[in-house]
Amino acid sequence: MGYNPLISMPNREKVERKLRSLDLLVVIDPFMTETAKIADYVLPAALWVEKEGSVANLDRLVKWRFKAIDPPGEAKPDYEILKELAEGFGYSFNSDPKEVFEEMKKVSPTYSNLSLDEIMDYSSNSRYPNHEVSLYEEKFNTEDGKARFIFREQHEVKNGMILITVRNVTRYNTDVVTGRIPGFGVYSTHIY
Amino acid sequence: MDYAEKITEILKEDIENFAKLISQKGVIFAWGLGLTQSSGVDGVRSYIDLALLTGNIGKYGGLLVFRGQTNVQGAGDIVKPNVFPNGAMNEENAQKLLKI
């Protein structure tokens, strides 16, 4: 779902060999990615403006994203695709984003003090767990209030290099979206 | 400290001076894919330990991880490989989830 491992994972040849050896590969994505092109089935997904639901950022702020337009053609929000797939397997899934949010509050207690009204209000401080702007001012969330250290042994670095991915300002992840922008590649032609 | 000096090739005195500096001021510990892709969970935990040890979590300083996608935080709140969304991966929490 919304994932293009054929391009984004290290060791591309191995990834491609594995994906092609699967009995069944189903891709759910708004775009016809490289991974989607080798799939048995591609289920077109809606983009963020074509569906609704909550998102959380690293500041613990939870906000609602409102739907602006209908998805084109046969595209559907992920939650509707999953509901239909689940029904095909004999399970009952809820695909109403507001009801799903209420369910999420029960599943993840961190969210339990947030209301739909406040996360839909863009001026509210809808931070979990209890609307704090900063956490652990006096003590930590442990039995004795003290921090827990998890020490790790640092192994000696061996000779050689560790390659990591890089994000360029004008390009994002596997270029699926940024590659469609007119003028793409004019300012940054190198691929890392 | 001798070991730290050896593997980092940074002088022991410099490491000590830097540790004193960051324990006396509010410091924000930021990181992104460079740390996670090179050192993984161990690297991140060690980094967080350093912030804790130098008194940089709470009122002064803090942790700031740059996340690459809109709802990485939200997805991580619900789905983790080793923890249930309602706590430790044990039978009691599994039964609670089953009821929901």
What can you see in these coordinates?
The complex is a heterodimer of chains A (192) and B (100). Chain A has helices at residues 5-8, 12-20, 34-37, 78-88, 97-107, 116-120, and strands at residues 26-29, 41-44, 53-56, 62-65. In chain A, strands 1-2 form a two-stranded parallel sheet. Chain A has a two-stranded antiparallel sheet with strand order 3-4. The radius of gyration of chain A is 21 Å and the shape is globular. Chain A starts with a helix and ends in a 72-residue tail after the last helix. Chain A has 192 residues and is of the alpha+beta class. Chain A has a single domain (5-132, 152-177), classed as 3-Layer(aba) Sandwich (Rossmann fold), CATH 3.40.50.740. The mean pLDDT of chain A is 91. In chain B, the strands form two sheets. A two-stranded parallel ribbon of chain B has the order 1-2. In chain B, strands 3-4 form a two-stranded antiparallel sheet. The longest helix of chain B has 21 residues, at 33-53. The radius of gyration of chain B is 18 Å and the shape is elongated. The N and C termini of chain B lie far apart (50 Å). The A-B interface holds A 48, 54-58, 60, 62, 103-104, 106-111, 134-138, 147, 149-152, 154, 156-157, 162, 164-165, 167, 173 and B 3-4, 6-7, 33-34, 37-38, 42, 45-46, 49, 52-53, 57-59, 62, 64-68, 70-74, 77-78, 85-87, 97, 100.
